[in-house]
Amino acid sequence: xxxxxxxxxxxxxxxxxxxxxxxxxxxxxxxxxxxxxxxxxxxxxxxxxxxxxxxxxxxxxxxxxxxxxxxxxxxxxxxxxxxxxxxxxxxxxxxxxxxxxxxxxxxxxxxxxxxxxxxxxxxxxxxxxxxxxxxxxxxxxxxxxxxxxxxxxxxxxxxxxxxxxxxxxxxxxxxxxxxxxxxxxxxxxxxxxxxxxxxxxxxxxxxxxxxxxxxxxxxxxxxxx
Length: 225
Hints:
Number of strands: 9
Strand order of the largest sheet: 3-1-2-4-5-6-7-8-9
CATH topology: TIM Barrel
Order of helices and strands: EEEHEHEEHHEHEHEH
CATH class: Alpha Beta
Number of helices: 7
Strand content: 15-25%
CATH architecture: Alpha-Beta Barrel
């Protein structure tokens, strides 16, 4: 697989926030989010090819009970199914994090689906392709149908994003608010903190979950956290 980095850390976001986890971060993405916090896996993908068996052995050696396959966009990797199957066979709980623009075959214990809204649209020549890909909801619908254990995670800047989030939830047929998580957009702990009260208020209003970004609070963001 084309891998940017592997590391042991605390899961920073979502239903499993705070859980010690081994992260396998693939490199390469078909989207170009303007606020991407891992541009070394998207705008300028870095890394190299690593055997699946080596990645699984490293995950087991970490002694973590949870593995997170993230990116970039891990669903681009043709070896994804082989990796997730081997991790689960080794006894690890596997989360796969994706924007949901693709739906290849793979296994996981928790699907972390992060549909993108217009606040992600980049400037310049990448804009139209990005918008076209994020607007195609067929793959996301099929993923949600396959994985009842899922979370839907939305990056929110302010209350103006909520109508689009609600429209997406309706289009996806997602009816359980407890599986919907709102996350404040920011590339630093300070930026996230500045938006957090408004995002928390939206969660209270709509019955959604608020998700922190613990890795930024604890480690300052960046690589390997």
